[in-house]
Design a protein that fits this description.
The protein is mostly helical. It has a single domain, classed as Up-down Bundle (Methane Monooxygenase Hydroxylase, Chain G, domain 1), CATH 1.20.58. The chain has five helices and two strands, in the order H-H-H-H-E-E-H. A hairpin with a 2-residue loop joins strand 1 (160-161) and strand 2 (164-165). Helix 3 runs parallel beside helix 5. The protein is elongated, with a radius of gyration of 30 Å.
Length: 205
């Protein structure tokens, strides 16, 4: 048993020495031989990162609208409107970044992988904007129907409807209208993003 162990240990030691010598014979590439990363890669990674963040923000908006039980409060609608306004501004900024890269990008470069991903995410963002639009339209219809019902009831029973004042009902409707208007701006920004992302991808092919 001891002889076998000694033999095995010797073989392992010999093999290790062989690997060490082999490693010494491997030529280490000189710094000049290492391919430098395209400086544009960082810029495209930054664009992609910003896009992914907007996609996440839209997920939050969809969840808020999809899980809302009954009508949202004026504060909820205002917060959602501010969120959509922020996303729209960010999408316009990304579109501007895309446009700035048109003249600098070279056809057939390694950046094609990034521009393809940017275009894919732009389309994904556009679909989610459409989803938010559909959910807001449903919410607006529900709010309008409830507001009309409450207005009729208020004329019969006084100034309050289920604890709500007429001024509260009007404030909700105005907040809903402001949200719908902000959504139009978001849809416009998303279409612009889609167009610039598509042309950026084409320029890189």
């Amino acid at each position: 048993m001891k002889k076998r162990f000694a033999l095995t240990a010797g073989l392992i030691l010999f093999a290790g020495m062989g690997l060490a010598f082999a490693a010494d014979n491997v030529k280490t590439p000189a710094p000049s031989e290492v391919k430098a990363e395209n400086p544009k890669v960082k810029e495209f990674k930054d664009i992609l990162f910003k896009l992914v963040r907007q996609d996440e923000y839209l997920d939050e908006a969809v969840e808020t609208l999809d899980t809302a039980n009954g009508r949202l409060t004026v504060e909820d609608l205002s917060a959602l409107r501010f969120s959509l306004k922020t996303i729209a501004g960010n999408l316009r900024h990304i579109s501007a970044l895309n446009k700035a890269e048109f003249s600098a990008i070279e056809s057939g470069s390694e950046l094609g992988t990034y521009t393809n991903t940017i275009m894919s995410y732009s389309r994904k963002v556009n679909r989610k904007v459409g989803q938010v639009n559909a959910l807001v339209a449903q919410l607006a219809a529900k709010n309008k129907k409830a507001a009309m019902r409450d207005a009729v009831a208020s004329r019969k029973g006084g100034k309050k409807v289920r604890g709500k004042k007429i001024t509260d009902i009007v404030a909700e409707q105005r907040a809903m209208d402001a949200l719908a208007a902000e959504l139009k701006a978001l849809a416009s920004a998303s279409r612009s993003l889609n167009a610039t992302s598509k042309w950026l991808y084409i320029a890189s092919k």
